[in-house]
Every structure is written in C-alpha cells, then in structure tokens.
Amino acid sequence: MTTTAKSLLRRPLLLAAAALAGAAGLRAQADAERSVPAPSVPRASKPAALTLFAFYGDASGALAQDAAYLDGLAAAYADRGLRVVVLMRDADEARTPALRRAELVDDRGGQFAANLSPAGPDPRSRLVVADAQRAALFRGAPGCGVLDMLERELAGQGDSAYEAAAGRWRRQLADSFDELAGGDTLGLLEPLARRSPRDGLLNGLLYLTYATKANDRRAARALRTRATRAMSAAPRALAVFADLAMRGDPLRAEVWEDLRPALERAAELAPDDASVQRALLRARVAARDDRAAGRLAMQRRRSMTSTAHGCLDFATLLARAETPMVYRDIAEEAVARAATLGAEPRLLAAARYVVRLRCGEDVSGASQVLASYRAERGDYYRINSDAWRFLTQVGTMGRYDWFAAGLVEELLGGSAALDYFELDTAALAMFLVGRVTEAVDYQRAALREGGREEAAYRDRLARYEAFAAPGPR
Length: 473
Hints:
Elements: H1 3-10, H2 17-20, H3 23-34, E1 50-56, H4 61-77, E2 82-88, E3 103-106, H5 111-116, E4 127-131, E5 136-140, H6 146-154, H7 160-176, H8 182-195, H9 200-213, H10 217-230, H11 235-248, H12 253-269, H13 274-286, H14 290-304, H15 308-318, H16 328-340, H17 345-359, H18 363-377, H19 380-392, H20 401-412, H21 420-432, H22 436-451, H23 455-468
Parallel strand pairs: 1-2, 2-3
Antiparallel strand pairs: 1-4, 4-5
C-alpha cells in the first residue's frame, strides 16, 4: 500500500469548496432536494404556509429532549402560518412525551421517513420544513438554522439555493471539517453564518475555524460575543454553538468563561431541554466548579441520559472534571445504559476507556478495553484513521480525546517508523490531552517527513506553538 493510499484511510475525501459553491450547482442541488413525497398526515383545519416535519423512530428519549423545543416553535410561529408535525414510527401514547402545541402523527410504516433518508431518521436531518405544496425547503436539526430559515421564508425572503448549500455543508463538515485549510473554510463559512446568526452549528464551525485553523484569538472572541448575543433567546441554538466551541477549543479558559453566563440564562429558559443542560454542565466542569457541576449532574441526570448519545456525552463530560473519581458510579451507569440503548460499539469502547481511565483510575482495565479494540480493528493504518476521526469529527471531538491518545500511544510504541500523517495525528492527540510540548515536536516531525505542502499541517503547528509560548493564547 502506498503512502498516499494509506493516508486516505485516515480521512474522508471532501470536494473542493469552489467546485461545490458554484451558483449553477447550488440551484441544481436545491431543485433536487425540494421534491418530497407528501406524507399521509391529516391536513390542517387552517391552511399552513409552512409545515415543519420532525421525524422520530419511536417514543424514545430523542423526542423527550426535543418536545419542548418543538412546542416552542409551534407556539412562536403558529400565528404566522407554521404547523409543526411530529411523525413517529411507533407512536406509543403511554411512552410518548406530551406535546402541547405540536401535532403527533403515527407514521407506523416509516414511509415518509424512508423517503427523507433511506436509512431512516438522520439526527442531522431530523427536521424538514416544507411549503404548502409539500416541497422541502429546509433539512436540518434543532438549533441548526431553523429559526433563521423560518424568519426568511415567512417574510417572503426565502432562498432555496442558500438553504441547500447550508444544509449540505452542515452535513459534510460534520464529517470532514479538517479537510479544508483555514482560508478556504473561512471563505466558505463566513457568508453562511452571516445569513444565519442563530445557526448553532454553522457559527460553531466558523468559531472553530478562527480558533483552531487560523489561530485568531481576537476573531474567535468577537464571534463568541456576537453569537451569544444573537442566540440569547434561542437556547438550543446557543447550546449547539457553545458545546461545539468548548469541545473543539478546550484549552482556552476564556471560552467557557465567556459562555457560561449565557448558558446559565439559557438553562433557565429551557429547563426541560437536556441538550441545553448538558452544555451548561460542560461549562461548569470546564470552570472546575465541581460543586455546581455535581449538583446539576444529579438534578438532571435522568433527562441527560435518556438517549444513547446523551449517556455517552454525560459520562465522558464528567470524566473531564478536576476530580473525575467522584463521578465514577454515575459515569459507569451512563455507559452501561448507553449499551442498552444501542450505542455505536466504537463509541461505547471509547467511553468505557475514558471512564475507566479518568473516573475509575483503572489503568489496567482501560488497557484491556484498548487491547480489545485494537484486536478488532486490525492494522496500524486503521487505528490511526480511527484516532483521527475521534479527534476531528464534529460528533466526537472533545469527547474521546483520551481514547484517541491511547490509540496513538499504541502507534508510537510500535517498531515501525511512523508516516507523516500518523505523526500529525499523534500531535493533535497529545495537544488535546494537554501535552503541548510533545504536540509541537510531533507536528514539526510531520512537516519534516512529508507534510510540508499541507497548509492544514502548518495551521496546526502554529496553533500548538502559540499554546506552548508564554503569554495570552
């Protein structure tokens, strides 16, 4: 296997921004995505200008976490012509959270959800907004651009090409954020985020571009200020933004210091939104406020762990505490519950490792988890690829850094010389677990061994060196 072929194992390919951003391409994409078969849901007694469809597989915790959010949308926009319809494949009334303003419809066959996505409801595209003809205008997730889209469309200023572009980049960058260099990513995200100031994901990605790719502390802080102001009355959007900023930029104290007051207010506005409560918990943990963090963890544990994702996030979040050992029991319970809720095996393994290492102080037990994972995954190149994805994909960054570091140390302890892209992975893993001097050394080696032409490699070295130097970061 050539070095080039091996390096492709580490990262998914992403088409160049310029090729995807052409006006003709956006229009074609928008036209293709607008066609959505009409679901067999009852027509509203009063015609709706727009219908927001929310898809859920069953009466699980996902809807419990979103119910208040959906009711809030229905209440805020009903007078302006929005109807909110929740479609569920298993609408068990005994287990389904009460919806006060949104309508619940049994999509028992899952036919409409299947038309939306062949794999069923995708958490990143759970919401679809359609016009009166049932043509899709928007696909996304709670807190990710819905409010801005509704305002534009209800004011007669809708733009299908923009919505298609924004939706596509939300999905693609979640998997491949590392692929574009800082300048390219800024050029892509700045106009999108400007048009959607309450899009937690797009603004979060732009924040990470400033903070990690461009290493522009001033621009990053200005965006934090602007985003918290724009999202002050949008708790879920703020939670998406703040959670991503704190996970992706974990070594800068000013991040959680700036975001915590806004999250405290958001948590009061949305006491039943587990995503908002977990974002606040992350801020309290980062601030080393163990008393306040522990109180919130115990008060909201049940709602925070109602989904597999929530369980894993809760457990790995507590593992970041200054004294994670005090959370051992509830962190282990959360991981065990995630298994019963069908969590992805690779994420379960990563969470078990992190909780055993950090909360249990069980180095031997953590090593056993790592050895088992290694045995299942096979060769070094796949291990390196796994570590990189844990570190860089939007859904996993900042949650499993210690597990990725464990995988990397397996590579570093091997007999074979590492390729430049493996050294790059090692550098990022060391940096994110606080071993900054080692990160600088590995990144310099990555550049020396073959990464000199990679702008992203130079961006990362600049970031590590800035943190290694004394003074403001």
